[in-house]
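Problem statement: downstream parser choked on a complex file, so we are re-checking the raw output for the LQZAQKY5 run. The parser issue turned out to be on our end (a line-ending mismatch), but while we're here, posting the original submission so the record is complete.
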Amino acid sequence: MNGRKNKRTIYLEDKPRQQAQQELLEQCSIERNVEYIASQKAVGRVTAFPIYASLSMPHYHASAMDGIAVRADQTKSAHEQQPLLLKKGDDFVFVDTGDPIPDGFNAVIMIEHVNEVDTDTMQIIEPATPWQHIRPVGEDVTYGEMLFPQDHELRSIDLGALLAAGIIEIPVLKRPTVSIIPTGNELVYPTLDVSPGDIIEFNGTVFASQVEEWGGCAKLQDIAVDDWEAISESLMKASRESDVVIINAGSSAGSKDYTAQVINELGTVYTHGVATRPGKPVVIGEIDSTPIIGVPGYPVSAYLAMEWFVRPLLCQYYGKKEPKRNTVRVKLGRRIVSTMGAEDFVRMNIGYVNGQFIANPLTRAAGVTMSLVRADGLLVIPPEQLGYEQGEEVDVELLRPLPEIESTFMFSGSHDLMIDILRSCLRKEHQRDLSISHTGSMSGILAIKNEEAHISGVHLLDPATGIYNETYVKQMLPDQDVVLLPFLKREQGLIVNAGNPLGVETIHDLTNASVQYINRQRGAGTRILLDHLLKYEKIDVEEVNGYEREMFTHLSVAAEVRSDQHNVGLGIRAAADAMGLDFIPVAEENYDLLMTRAFYESESGQELINTIESESFRQQVNQFDGYRLSEDREPRFYRS
Ligand SMILES: Nc1nc2c(c(=O)[nH]1)N[C@H]1C(S)=C(S)[C@@H](COP(=O)(O)OP(=O)(O)OC[C@H]3O[C@@H](n4cnc5c(N)ncnc54)[C@H](O)[C@@H]3O)O[C@H]1N2
Ligand code: MOO
């Protein structure tokens, strides 16, 4: 056995996902088990058998109104010109809504249609029809009637019907036990105390929540180390104790990826590798009729694989169709390429700009959890499709409700921490979200030009004039009616490690051999500022170590600086502060907001302006060093 233990399994299949799913459902199923629970606690549970009423509702003839109970045939002569007098006890009885109708009476007249002559005498001017305003026995539910078929998922209103119909306890399907085994020597339980190489175990919690949402009872097991015996022991134990077992990671081609081999040794492997990107290294098998699903390690792949192979098992158990997401037709802002022969799942950012849904792909890296957190939709590209062109229209599965997407402002432009603050203020003041793409100032201007964003944030210095933004806006948007709204003044400077261990003082120090510079991406205002400063100081970019190393945000530059004593970056003071780093100011710059005039003047545009002008936003901006709101906030209009 030893020889096999360290062998790599590199030949993964590319089985179509639907085939793998169909085979799984044909080969495996969860045995149906029934339990009786209190009806009061049954919301979300699924009936195991048809449920029949034990009582009628109402179970007596009940008055439907406040008024008087009468005998209908005694009231026939009542007329406006010939009012009829009724005597209490003989001719009528007072009843309130819900009261039983006394024997011998068969109609109710509403109190407002009755004239009181004295306490014992009432006058009516219209006859009553038999059974008017009476809820007969069983009006709602009749004894013996089927309330719910089997496999019905109980909702809140259903519990009312159950209790009224005398069902105190109800047979429901037991929630299948789903064990989750995280594997990997590098995994640690959630903590702040991490060393390089440690990976916080969080997939298990995501899976457990998914399982609970789908009606399973999740059992998150201890982390299993990458060791044949440990994994096989954990798998055997879990397969005896549960209805389904999920084993996470160790499914790919790494030297310690044993999952498939262990399942094969203990039972049968049906599938190893599906034709999806991400999510390929899935393992599907069984041990003693317990389905075992080996889910890839990367969080995005893992989340999707759970939906593809664990949810169907639970749906099958509950006799339920798999839920389908709603879709929306969007125009693609960028070209998207896809692998031939494999289904691609692309997380998308969707915006509603100028009456049209426009979508752009988020990162494709399956290790980036936030790409799924931030995604508004999922573009599923079929295996035979090589991708789509920019501007093409496609259907995207929705991960957020459409009205929420419709009301979200799209921001694309330079990264700034105050944009996050603006987002949270917009949420609070106008229940509106702001979707933020850190694309840099130049791309931000292009996004306004291409109607892909409502708002852009720009800080672009024109070296010739020393003026910010205006030159670029005029040049890049010559025929558009746009507004540049002065927004922030902020300090830019060199971000160095705490205590400035390299003794950096000026931009010239970037040429020191001990300095490793962390740059920003092309088109970013900070990059343009650096280039300008270098040129002004007559420093060649070749002399700056690390010039080609690009990061996309101030915070990621700061995080890089913190990771190594030799690293230095250029960025805003707030980013240095946020990471406990030192800051050497080099410039104060204008960070302005750009939008179309139509948006600026629209009702929703005014919500943005109100938020910027709000006391709460100003207070929050003032809490950050190195920032102030521009004193002059008069909008500048540009038109062709
Ligand atoms: N040479 C190849 N390398 C890789 C391939 C391949 O085909 N050839 N496939 C890549 C793909 S695609 C994926 S997905 C991953 C899957 O690898 P494993 O399932 O073997 O998982 P690990 O390598 O153990 O972990 C990968 C990665 O996933 C994260 N992770 C794992 N467990 C957890 C957890 N419980 N909580 C949170 N995060 C977890 C973590 O970032 C791991 O580093 O392999 C590629 N490599
Ligand atoms: O297949 Mo992996 O699951 O692409 O990320």
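For whoever reads this later: The radius of gyration is 34 Å.
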